[in-house]
């Protein structure tokens, strides 16, 4: 009887933690226990591991017995003991530690790390969060990572570590014995750009709204589109994501890691800004994050992309007000009994709303009572309105215009080029890849968005008349800076300030 030790890792919130899998076997009545704060999925590894080993080729060895058939006491320790262990990804390292402890395998290299769930017939199933797990393995100095075959492409995004795709536990054991080697996974070209659909060309009219989308995409500004139903608000909102430039290498890995941990990764590498569009019946926890063990919500899954909230006032008021912190700080802090977490949530908010519950405010079709109208508008509080930089009315389009062919078939391409140029100016200004005008601090405004006396006079008069809060005042300056960047203007001009002011919300939406 012997002792075995090898390495694995697990995700906790959005971080990865190294886990040492230790096994001790001793004479005694048959027992198989796992210690180290395992959850139900980890405890069930005892049955999965035993069945997987029993149904693999190890039964051909006359001395081999599966854990549940071996008359010995087996103790598995997952260290550190104070870190709760979750998920089935420890199946493979537990199985290997049993084989080492019983002499079926020699002691393993301490530069190797293992992940994967086992099926009852010995197949290695994919798991979530592989990208951050392999990143952690590289940081800790590991040279080889053994991952499920279906996770190999995701794991191979991490350079300077050898990735081995594993299909079965028997195949892995043969590789470790040196009898039948597994070929390392060959990395693909990192940038897999997918074609961006053209959206603006399919929208007739709404030139004012298209201008607003261009400004929002260039500076990362939050935008609200309001108007009667059927005027193209949803189409415009979804078009915004197609105007944003592709994610940088580091940002693509960051976003892919978040979606991998959350189990929402549907491609190897996310190279385009994500678009999240939850239904207006979404709960507080699903949007902001949380739960007994804090998990990321929609605001985090939209990180570096767009969060589109259609029928904005129909969301629960508590949900709407919960957007205050992520819109202001680019992150959301969650505190629960089992711990606290801070998740990144730097996104562009696109809100679409009708002017009243029925959508036909100001016309003979409107059937809303004054009380209903007041309750509808009170759902959006002043602090939320302050944090939305642009309020754009999307009016009805003449019917004959709907049948017209687009005059510019490359409108989206031209807007993307203009947005990319404006963002290049901001990159040169801030020297930070993901810093945009919308994220400028008051100190940054003093350095990068100075106003002339004439511009300051216009802004101050408008702020007095419109009763702008200090936050809204600063957001007008940031918006004017972006408009100036779109025109390649070094200084903010009067027309830039005037255009920025026209996007502030009117008393009646």
Q: Which CATH class of the largest domain is shown?
A: Alpha Beta
Radius of gyration: 28 Å
The total count of strands amounts to: 18
β-strand percent reads 15-25%
Give the overall shape, derived from the CA principal axes: elongated
CATH superfamily of the largest domain, please? P-loop containing nucleotide triphosphate hydrolases
- Please outline the major beta sheet: 5 strands, parallel
Class from helix and strand fractions: alpha/beta
Fold-level CATH name of the largest domain = Rossmann fold
Low-confidence stretches: none
Query: Could you give the order of strands across the largest sheet?
Result: 11-14-17-10-18
Taking all residues together, what is the mean pLDDT? 89
Given the structure, what is the number of helices? 21
Assigned CATH architecture of the largest domain = 3-Layer(aba) Sandwich
Helix content: 25-40%
- Taken together, the total number of domains comes to 3
Separation, N- and C-terminal Cα atoms: 76 Å
């Amino acid at each position: 009887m012997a002792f075995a030790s090898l390495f694995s890792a697990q995700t906790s919130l959005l971080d990865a933690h190294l886990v040492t899998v230790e096994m001790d076997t001793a004479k005694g009545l048959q027992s198989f226990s796992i210690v180290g704060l395992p959850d139900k999925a980890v405890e069930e590894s005892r049955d999965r591991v035993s069945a997987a080993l029993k149904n693999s080729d190890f039964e051909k060895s006359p001395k081999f017995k599966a854990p549940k058939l071996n008359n010995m006491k087996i103790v598995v320790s997952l260290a550190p003991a104070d870190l709760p262990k979750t998920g089935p990804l420890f199946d493979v390292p537990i199985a290997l530690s049993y084989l080492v402890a019983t002499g079926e395998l020699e002691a393993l290299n301490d530069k190797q790390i293992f992940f994967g769930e086992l099926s009852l017939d010995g197949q290695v199933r994919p798991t979530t969060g592989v990208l951050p797990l392999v990143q952690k393995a590289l940081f800790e100095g590991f040279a080889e990572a053994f991952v499920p075959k279906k996770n190999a492409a995701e794991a191979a995004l991490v350079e300077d570590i050898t990735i081995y795709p594993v299909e079965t536990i028997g195949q892995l054991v043969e590789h470790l014995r040196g009898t039948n080697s597994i070929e390392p996974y060959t990395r693909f070209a990192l940038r897999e750009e997918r074609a961006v659909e053209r959206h603006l060309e399919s929208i007739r009219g709404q030139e004012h709204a298209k201008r607003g989308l261009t400004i929002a995409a260039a500076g990362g500004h939050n935008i609200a589109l309001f108007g009667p139903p059927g005027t193209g608000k949803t189409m415009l909102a979804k078009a915004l994501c197609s105007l944003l430039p592709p994610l940088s290498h580091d940002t693509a890995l960051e976003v892919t890691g978040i979606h991998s941990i959350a189990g929402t990764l549907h491609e190897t590498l996310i190279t385009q800004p994500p678009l999240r569009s939850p239904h207006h019946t979404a709960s507080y926890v699903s949007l902001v994050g949380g739960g007994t063990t804090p998990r990321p919500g929609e605001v985090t899954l939209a990180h570096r992309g767009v969060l589109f909230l259609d029928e904005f006032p129909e969301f629960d008021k508590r949900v709407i007000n919960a957007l205050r912190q992520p819109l202001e700080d680019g992150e959301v802090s969650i505190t629960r009994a089992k711990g606290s977490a801070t998740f990144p949530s730097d996104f562009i908010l696109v809100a679409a709303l009708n002017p009243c519950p029925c959508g036909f405010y100001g016309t003979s079709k409107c059937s809303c009572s004054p009380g209903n109208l007041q309750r509808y508008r009170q759902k959006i509080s002043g602090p939320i309105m302050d944090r939305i930089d642009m309020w754009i009315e999307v009016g009805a389009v003449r019917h004959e215009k709907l049948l017209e062919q687009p005059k510019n078939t490359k409108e989206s391409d031209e807007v993307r080029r203009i947005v990319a140029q404006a963002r290049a100016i901001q990159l040169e200004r801030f020297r930070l890849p993901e810093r945009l005008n919308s994220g400028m601090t008051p100190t940054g405004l003093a350095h990068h968005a100075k106003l002339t006396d004439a511009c300051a006079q216009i802004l101050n008069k408008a702020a007095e008349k419109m009763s702008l809060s200090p936050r809204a005042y600063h957001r007008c300056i940031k918006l004017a800076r972006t408009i100036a960047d779109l025109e390649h203007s070094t200084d903010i001009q009067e027309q830039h300030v005037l255009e920025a002011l026209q996007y502030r919300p009117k008393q009646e939406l």
